[in-house]
Amino acid sequence: MAEFREKGPRGPVDHQKVPTRAAVFVPVFKQRTEADGRGTPGLEAVRRSDEARLAEAIGLAAAIDLDIVASAIVTGQKPQPAALLGSGKVEELKALVAAEQVGLVIIDHPLTPVQQRNLEKELETKVLDRTGLILEIFGRRARTKEGRLQVELAHLNYQRGRLVRSWTHLERQRGGAGFMGGPGETQIEADRRQLQEKIKRLEKELDQVRRTRQLHREKRRKRPHPIIALVGYTNAGKSTLFNRLTGADVMAKDLLFATLDPTLRKTVLPHGTEILFSDTVGFVSDLPTHLVAAFRATLEEVLEADLILHVRDVSDPDTLAQAEDVRRILRDLDVDTEDAEHVVEVWNKIDRLDEDERHRVSAARASLAEQGSAHLVSAVTGEGTDALLTDIEQRIAGHLTGVSVDVAPEAMNFIPWLYDNATVTKRDDGEDGVVRLRVKITTQARAKLHRVQQETSGITIAW
Ligand SMILES: Nc1nc2c(ncn2[C@@H]2O[C@H](COP(=O)(O)OP(=O)(O)OP(=O)(O)O)[C@@H](O)[C@H]2O)c(=O)[nH]1
Question: Coiled coil where (predicted)?
């Protein structure tokens, strides 16, 4: 967890902007709330410690240009409707905020619009809740047009939710139904309409971008390369592993959500199988449902993957809770996380474990044996990655068969087809003009190859 604390704000540098002095507070209530529980019901063992929650919140805050000058776990009996925290606590925070000249307060808990407004008034600073913070981070990280549009849309939907809620809240205060008109309401109505229009415009634009991407995807689908998707909690080491496995140079920094847009890269496995690796957005606990929905399209890469690698940071004391969060989001996306054939766990950062911890992790892994194994790796040192690649190849090979193809000179035009529809693992250009190829091919492409062979003379195939 120290890892989070070491992080400085390393977002895209804006030289004109001095980092905002910020404070991070994690409310913890004796009377547990759903948001506070954060784990899966019944999974007490994986419930985050308060310290881990604080460390993560600081890490998230540091992911944007903030200078964290104060942080604390704030305990209370139960959430208060007015300002989430009781008035005594708010007073304490106010003093801290003033003493440290804090310009932004992050509350790692969902806030109702009323709570947010009241806290802003009391503390005399801007206040962000967890969703607001995650949206800020996403906004800064999105690179592609689609990514940017998705974030903007999620932001607007978030705002819309807050407008609607505060509006109904006003209604209730005024005595509820029957009250029509009035300046406040008209203004909110107008704001809502404007938001609605903007949302519609964005949705249309996004649709267009997606259609273009869909076309690319369909083109790719015709290719025979299996797709392996890397998923995992933010900072688990997906991009580092992606680089290690593909030799790519994707930004892998101590930067949360460095990968917001999916990145695809082709690589060749030890025995010559070509595959595409896809690096995807990092997950985080309490990812608001509408945000997951917004990224659904991006995550379609994951849904269509032949194999999903769930990358976990096993050096993080919170690794169990993080894994559970990732599984929950995957399940939301209709991925069967119990399917060990399809989802493989990769336990990363083992170089950070001492002897005892290694033992413990190995034992935990051994106990998994029945449900499919996990790979112990270090994306940084490369330990375990060869075995991982070999395992991937074995799993993928089930989908591919090897075929030998001899192409006579009169059928040379057929060779590019073969490169497009199969993975060529060996090629001999014989002196007799015959090109002898060894290829790996999907069942689908096999049927096509059979048809092409019947229509073209000069092709000999040993199935
Ligand atoms: N010691 C050690 N550090 C690692 C390892 N893998 C990744 N890291 C570090 O962990 C940090 C996060 O790595 P990334 O690869 O950016 O993580 P990610 O999962 O892609 O992060 P998001 O983009 O936030 O989803 C970086 O500082 C990496 O250098 C590992 O095997 N060992």
Answer: 185-219
